[in-house]
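Please think about what follows:
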Amino acid sequence: MIGLVLLLLFAGLLGLYWNVRYGGDVIEGDATRLTLAAEGSLIEGRVEPSKEPYHAGFGYPSTLAMLSALTGMDVRVVQLQMGFWLIIFALIVFLCYREVLAGARLALLATFLLLIQPDFLFYILRGSHEKQTWLLMILMLFILARSYHHTQRLGSFAIHVGLFYLVFWSMISTTAYFASTILFSLTIAFLFGWTLFRLERLFARPASVAAPRAADTTANMWVRRFFLSGAIGVILVYVFINYVYPPAVGYYDTLQNIADRVSALILGAEKHSAPYAAVQRAWVSPTVYLGLVAIQLLIALCGAAAWLGMLWRWLRGGWSSAPRGIHLLWLLYSGFALQLVLGIGLDFAGLLGLNLQLRLFAPLATIGSPLAALFIKDMVGRLDLSTRAIRWVAVPVATLATVACLLKVTNDPLVSNLWTFYTESEVNAQDWVDENIFASRVWLDIWPHQLDIMQFRKGYAWETNNIYVGGLGETDARYIVLSSLTRLQANRSGEPIPSVVEHNRIFDNGGVQIYQRPPRTPFQN
C-alpha cells in the first residue's frame, strides 16, 4: 500500500510540474483542435459540431464537454488542467499490471518504468485524445487478462467479453485510427503465435503433441482470442468510420495512393509530412536528445531482451512456471514491435511522410514496460545484489531519468528549440492584430504555434477575415508578427524568418513587434 501511495504521489508531482512549469500557458495543435470540437459540442448540443469536428473521433471532445458541464469550468480551463489525469492513469495502469504480472511489486516497478519514458508521458500529459486512448488500451489489456479466470464460467466470461468490446468501441469513438493500430497488432500476434504452434506441432515428438504443456495451451488460447478479437474489431472500425461518424470518412481523402491507403489502415497513422525533420531541428543537439531518451532506450532494450528470453524458453520447453498474463504480454509485444519496425521502414521509404516511430512508441511502451520489469527482476536475482547496492544504483538512475523525462516532456528551452508555451506579450499582440487588421495576410511564426494559440484563446465562435500564415518561404504576407521567442527559436533551430527591412513597424510592446509592408501602388491600403 505504501508503494502504491508513493507511486500515485509521483504521478501527481509529474502532473503538477506539467501544469506549473509555464504557469499553464502551454498549448499545441491537437489540444487546440480538440478544445474547439468540445466547445462546438457544448454550443450546438451534438457530438459532430458543424464547424470544427475532430475527424478522428468524438470521444475525447465529448469527455471535455462533459467535464466542463459537470464542473462549470470553461472547456479551455479543463483542457489545461488535465495534467492531474496522470494520477488516475497511473492507478489503472498499476491495477492492470498487477493482474498481468501476478504481483504488486513488479506492477509498481513496471508502472514507474512507463511513467519515466518521455515519448509516452508527453502524449498522456498534453491536451490530446491519447491520454484517453491509451487508458482504454490499458483497460482492454486488464479485461483480457482478467477474463482468463472466468473461462469455465460462461456467464462471467460473457460479461468480460462484452466489456472488452465496449471498451474497444470507446477507443474507436476516441480515434478510429489508433484503434486500427490495435487491430493490426492483434493480427500480427495471432499470425506469430499460430506460426510458432504449427512449427512446434510439426517438429515435436508424438507424445508432446498428444499431451501439450499447460503453459503452451494457455498461449494457444490467447492466439485464438486474438483472431476473434481482430475479426470483430475490423467490423466495428468499419461501421464507425462509414456509418456512425461521417467526419471519419474524410480520412480516406487524405491518402494519395494505394500504398498510403494500405499503410494507414494497418498502422493506424495519420498523414503528415517531412518524416523525422522535426526531431532533427527541435533539440539543441543530437547528443542532448540522446541523453534525454537514454533511459527510455534502456527500458525498451530490457523489454526486448525479456521477449527474446521468453522466446528462447518457449523453444527449449515452454513456460510452465510463468504467470498466465506473461503469455498475453509476449504475444502482444510481438505485434506492436513489428508494427513499429514497419512504421519506421515506411517513414524512410517515404510512403506516408510522418513520424510513425513517435506515434507508435506509446502502445509498445505500454506492453514493453512490464516485460522490462521482469527482465530487471531476473537480472537482480542473477547478480544477487543486496538491498543497499540496489538502492545505490536505483535512486540516482531514477532521479536522472525523471529529470530528463520532465525536460523533454515540457520542451524545456534548456534542451529544446521548439516550445509549446507562450507569453502575455504574444497574447496582447494577437489581440491587437485581430482588432486592427482586416482582410490581410498575416505571418505569425516559423511553425503553426501562434495560430494554435489564437484559435485556442478565441474559441469556437471566433470569426476572422484575415489569412494567418507561417512557416518557411512565405513572402506574400502584408503584415509580419515577430516575437522575441520566435526570433530566438528561429536562431537556435536555423530556420529563416521573413525580412522586414522594407517594412514599417506599426506595433511594439517590448516582446512582440508587428511590421507592415508599405503600399506598392496608390490603390493599396
Remarks:
- DSSP finds 23 helices and five strands in the chain.
- The longest strand covers residues 479-483.
- Residues 214-244 form the longest helix (31 residues).
- The chain has a mean pLDDT of 84.
